[in-house]
Design a protein that fits this description.
Length: about 1000
């Protein structure tokens, strides 16, 4: 067994400088000294964000708003003309003097309000209209009408045009622009809605922030490659929010009285109502949450709002997904296994050693991943022949697949462009793309050349009609050399390490080193460790601190203490996409949209500039990759894709990981709220880089995190080049902690898979906030330190160092809910609304089963293939009324369109448990045992379909009130669900 003291004494505790630089240089195609792109190449203008600028003009004060006229009614809504109500303000662009309003009641639970310029032509369509080919708009149902709608829209011209959206059933005002003005310019739109006191909003991603959004926060939404900074914009764009409101019901007249969650009492009775709002807009966004209001600001596009009436979170999510952005892709069964990766696996032999170590320590492993290390010069679709040769890879992958395991490589969004003066610097992938002219251009029609890992690069133009076929062809060609089992699609914001087309005229310098130090190169040694590392590893922490101080002193540079910020101003009639007049609080240096990204003026084949569709690049790349994998596997296997940059609807094709997080306790903490937010966005296949990506992990953090992530749908350990290895077998306690949590995960894989199917077919969520599952308890509105997996499993992880207890709430206990400890199988004694102290020594993660649940399970094994070959078990947790229910979905686990499926329903009541199945999938494994929790007295006999179970196979614990019924294999030899059955006790 590996001991911590052995690991701390090893040479990799303080990473060596040689590792990263050697890895980079051996991946190049030249022996000459490599050119490094200067750091200045990625420095843009220093702009001051408007929200930070005391001199910024308040558009609400300066602009006149609009007046509505020519109102035309129809059975599904109404339309009107909006005319500027005064002198144009032109504060952050050019005012649009004439707008068209459309209010469409699309279904009983869905309403759309669209405001667009009256006059749009081919020359400016992309400024205001988001292509429906790219992002579909919801359509009205055939029986939609005003009278059948849950909503009612009213409007007024006093003092200028404003509107309200009201819930008919309660009269609650859900959206209200009264007292504000609509500002609509070619590069700036602002509209404001009132909100109640202490509102509860969720969503508006992508951010690393609290689950319930702060009521005084500035949320920028714009795809950006910037790790995972707190509260700033990062990889994806999801302008959707869930609004939940709580009420007391007046016993006399039944009216709803608003309740603040901070003043609620968990023992009292309340009701709630939720609705959703989606702004279909791909431009840079800024949402300002303020007391009693929300301010929307965009850098262009149109107002295309869709409202979903709920009235529960589950209803809202289902309505949003089924009508608007699409249901999540169904994942392969195997993807629920454990995934191991790191930036720094240098060859196939190292991967084989990692797999062997998982087997040695008997830790489940399903997928092994490689980061950019495998590439030749960091080029997509080309392996480094010296370290990841195709012949050695074929042997490794054959053995891997034979063992029931899989392989996923990273694929980046940018493509290397060869050095024209180096005949040996050939890159057929580029040549084929150039022949079809499928790359992004500059405004003058020349090739847009940025810089990413290989050096100077080009970018697929996803608007090009041949782009998807081109991408598909490259993946098909490569798949014949490398038998990969999925794609990790990265750098798709889209990221570029320089401002503008910096490669134009510089291609003779390729391949080039990025304009920053790679981890492990001299000057970028990683000395960072988790909080409290100095307590558990004092000597090593002191050494790391000294090393960090020495490095900081050696690399310190003198910089000016004053920064000269620029204020952008509009030029009438001129549309400045590189430095728009309104500056969003973008997280890149100087708030410049061109920094660390393709510039906003990069131009697609249809003339659309990146400015208008920037945040959809990754979304389109995921679609292209999905189509490509269908071809790679001849439409036989479900594509498995994990992407970094996502947009509303990306879940139709891919899952998402949380990005370049940190080996810090706070990063683990926020992974829960990030995961829950992505459930709302329709991307349930979510996971964080377990144990952290940036910085060195340590035993305690990795111990806790490996257990937490075991209850996320996507479960992967991944870390940065030159940090210490953090595979779970590196520490003895992490081995045991991982195996403990994995035993639970692998036992409930059938439950996990059923949740994925429900998400795919109905739009339900896999991970759930307590507030969503228990909508009538306002005290749960901000709970983000524990969560539910489906309706039946609750997880309360330790999220801070040096703790051996954790506090958790047990929702519903004052209203009949029962919770059972997973490990002891006994009912929890807890009081309503009380933070109960729970023992949680290192290596223990508290897990609870909700009364009223039936969980189908199988015996844990080292792979999902082995697990699926084991006998079945059922865990039946009776509710306070003695009933329980559950369901199971099965198929072959990988087919896009399975030929055979099976749905099984379980119901327990009156001392019996029934199983009823429908479908043609034949599950051959027998039922081994049934465990029933909450049985108040020992039964005199147990029968299955009237046939008595041997008393020797029955156990009953009167203290814990647990009934165990074993020995069922012979009674279900034809398969656990081959026949309907009744178990009675």
């Amino acid at each position: 067994m590996v001991k911590l003291t052995d690991l701390l004494a090893s040479t990799w505790l303080i990473p060596l400088a040689s590792g990263a630089s050697q890895s980079f240089l051996t991946s190049t195609t030249t022996s000459q000294p490599q050119f490094t792109i200067p750091a200045s190449a990625d420095v843009g203008a220093q702009l001051i964000a408007n929200i930070d600028d005391p001199q910024a003009v308040n558009a609400q004060s300066a602009c006149p708003g609009y007046k509505a006229s020519n109102v035309q009614h129809s059975p599904r809504g109404f339309s009107a003309s909006l005319q500027l109500a005064g002198k144009p303000c032109n504060v952050y662009g050019t005012d649009i003097d004439s707008l068209a309003l459309s209010v469409e009641y699309q279904d009983s639970n869905r309403l759309n309000i669209q405001i667009l310029p009256t006059y749009v032509d081919a020359s400016n369509a992309s400024w205001y209209l988001l292509s429906e080919t790219l992002v579909p708009r919801p359509k009205a149902s055939s029986n939609a009408s005003v009278s059948q709608s849950d909503f009612l829209v009213s409007w007024s011209n006093e003092p200028s045009f404003n509107f309200k959206v009201v819930r008919k059933a309660t009269g609650d005002v859900l959206f209200d622009t009264e007292g504000t003005v609509l500002v609509y310019e070619d590069q700036f739109i602002e509209f404001v809605t009132a909100l109640p006191d202490e509102y509860n909003l969720y969503g508006l991603g992508e951010h690393i922030t609290q689950l319930r959004l702060h009521r005084n926060s500035n949320l920028t939404i714009y795809a950006s490659d910037d790790g995972t900074p707190l509260d700033s914009n990062i990889y994806g764009q999801h302008p959707f929010y869930l609004d939940t409101r709580y009420y007391k019901v007046d016993a006399q007249n039944g009216t709803h009285i608003p309740v603040k969650s901070s003043e609620a009492d968990a023992s009292q009775e309340y009701v709630s109502s939720s609705h959703g709002v989606f702004l279909r807009n791909a431009h840079g966004l800024e949402i300002l949450l303020r007391p009693q209001k929300l301010i929307w600001r965009t850098l262009g596009g149109g107002i295309d709002l869709t409202f979903y009436s709920g009235p529960t979170q589950a209803d809202v999510t289902r309505q949003y997904l089924t009508s608007t952005v699409g249901l999540p892709a169904m994942q392969q069964y195997s993807t629920l296994g454990f995934h191991q990766c790191r930036w720094g696996y240098n060859n196939w032999s190292e991967l084989a050693d990692v797999v062997a170590n998982f087997e040695k320590f008997e830790i489940p492993l399903e997928y092994i991943w490689t980061d950019i290390d495998y590439m030749l010069g960091y080029r997509n679709f080309e392996n480094d022949p010296n370290r990841f040769s195709y012949s050695e890879g074929e042997e490794f992958l054959n053995d891997l697949h034979d063992s029931g395991r899989y392989y996923v490589p990273i694929v980046d969004s940018a493509l290397y462009i060869p050095n024209p003066e180096n005949a040996s610097d050939a890159y057929p992938t580029y040549d084929r793309g150039a022949a079809d002219d499928v790359f992004l251009k500059n405004p003058d029609g020349s090739l847009y050349i940025g810089a990413v890992w290989p050096g100077y690069t080009v970018f697929p133009d996803w608007h090009h009609p041949k782009a998807v076929d081109y991408w598909t062809n490259e993946l098909v060609i490569w798949s014949k050399k490398v038998a990969f089992d999925g794609v990790w699609y990265d750098m798709s914001e889209v990221s570029s390490f320089c401002v503008g087309s910096c490669g134009s005229g510089n291609l003779t310098l390729n391949p080039a080193h990025p304009p920053f130090l790679l981890p492990g190169e001299p000057g970028d040694i990683i000395y960072d460790y988790p909080e409290a590392f100095n307590i558990t590893n004092a000597t090593e922490a002191a050494s790391a601190s000294a090393g960090a101080a020495s490095q900081a002193a050696a690399t310190a540079t003198t910089t000016s203490t004053s920064v000269s910020y620029l204020r952008t101003t509009p030029t009438p009639g001129v549309r400045n996409v590189e430095h728009p007049p309104y500056v969003i609080n973008h997280d890149q240096e100087g708030h410049d949209l061109s920094v660390h990204a393709v510039s906003p003026n990069a131009t697609h084949v249809d003339g659309v500039e990146d400015y208008d569709v920037h945040s959809t690049f990754g979304h389109q790349g995921l679609n292209a990759t999905y189509q490509a994998l269908l071809e790679v596997w001849s439409h036989q296997r479900r594509p498995f894709i994990i992407g970094r940059s996502t947009f509303a609807g990306s879940g139709k094709w891919a899952g998402h990981w949380g990005g370049d997080n940190y080996s810090k306790w706070w990063s683990m903490y926020y992974s829960i709220s990030q995961a829950l937010s992505f459930q709302l966005f329709g991307i349930p296949m979510f996971g964080a880089d377990t144990c952290g990506f940036t910085g060195n992990s340590d035993e305690e953090l990795c111990n806790r995190w490996m257990q937490l992530s075991a209850f996320f749908p996507f479960y992967r350990n991944h870390n940065e080049l030159s940090t210490i290895p953090q595979e779970p077998y590196r520490w003895a306690s992490v081995i045991e902690a991982s195996k403990t949590a994995m035993r639970i995960r692998y036992a409930i894989l059938p439950y996990f898979y059923t949740l994925l199917d429900l998400a795919h077919t109905t739009g339900s969520t896999v991970m759930r906030a307590l507030a969503w599952e228990f909508p009538n308890d306002p005290t749960l509105a901000s709970v983000e330190t524990q969560f539910l997996l489906g309706p039946s499993i609750m997880v309360i992880p330790v999220l801070e160092p040096q703790a051996d207890t954790v506090k958790g709430v047990f929702p519903g206990v004052g209203h009949g809910e029962v919770w059972y400890d997973w490990y002891t199988q006994t009912a929890v004694d807890a009081k309503p609304g009380v933070n109960t102290t729970i023992p949680a020594p290192l290596g223990h993660i508290p897990v609870y089963v909700r009364g009223g649940s039936v969980l189908p399970m199988q015996e844990p094994a080292l792979t999902t293939r082995e697990t699926r070959q084991t006998p079945w078990a059922l865990l039946t947790a009776l509710g306070s009324n003695g009933t329980a229910s559950g369901q199971l979905y099965l198929d072959d686990g990988e087919s896009v369109y399975p030929n055979a499926t099976l749905h099984v329903n379980f119901t327990a009541s009156q001392s019996s448990l029934r199983s009823s199945a429908r479908g043609t999938w034949h599950e051959r494994n027998p039922l081994a045992n049934v465990t029933v929790l909450g049985v108040s007295k020992e039964p005199s006999a147990v029968t299955l379909n009237g046939q008595r179970v041997s008393p020797g196979s029955i156990g009953y614990n009167s203290t814990s009130q647990v009934l165990f019924v074993g020995g069922l294999q012979n009674l279900t030899a034809g398969g656990a669900w081959a026949k309907n059955w009744v178990l009675e006790w």
